[in-house]
Amino acid sequence: MTTAASPRELAHPTRDEIRLEGVLHALSDPVRLRVVRELATAESELSCSYFDLPVTKSTSTHHFRVLRESGVIRQVYRGTAKMNGVRRDDLDELFPGLLDSVLTAAAGEAARHGAG
Amino acid sequence: MTTAASPRELAHPTRDEIRLEGVLHALSDPVRLRVVRELATAESELSCSYFDLPVTKSTSTHHFRVLRESGVIRQVYRGTAKMNGVRRDDLDELFPGLLDSVLTAAAGEAARHGAG
User: Fold this and answer.
1) Of A28, A110, B28, B61, which cross-links A116 as Cys (Cβ 3.0–4.6 Å)?
2) Model confidence, pTM
3) Which residues form the HTH arsR-type domain (chains A, B) (predicted)?
């Protein structure tokens, strides 16, 4: 298991360090928004390799890092896989209703324009 | 009055052209978020010069343009003043609850951290 001292443990902002502007920026990219939508509807953590994103591996890694560093997702190593989950508790506590309204808006936009 | 043929009429996306990602990006900057918060609580349009922003004139103009081109605000010339208002009807129709949850989140963040 990963411990706090492990170099494989990834840096995350504490709940108190999460900022609205950073969250909105993280969600303002279509690829990142798609990742968050899939994570939000998944019943468990999803590995990075689960996602079939239309970007290179390094760009994908960048997008996951932006999501993690803004506090939108939590990433942990499980064996060789990097697993991802939305920090719903933290986001709902800090910004009530925001994540749900963004997810609803993204679903509506996908229905209107076929994106996502 | 400005007409459609006037060169002083500023370009705006139609409601159908407004995209969630663009709106979230526009709101992800602290200066722009502050402008939107003030416009949302104002009872009428506010001129650009009303805002005492901690940025240069050209940066301020850029921020207002990002807000306009993303569909968050409507800008119209009235004489020599550029007047601004939030496109609440369009945003609420496209993305129900989103603007309010962002405004609530911004107020909460300002209360916690003194920003805005």
Assistant:
1) A110
2) 0.91
3) 12-106
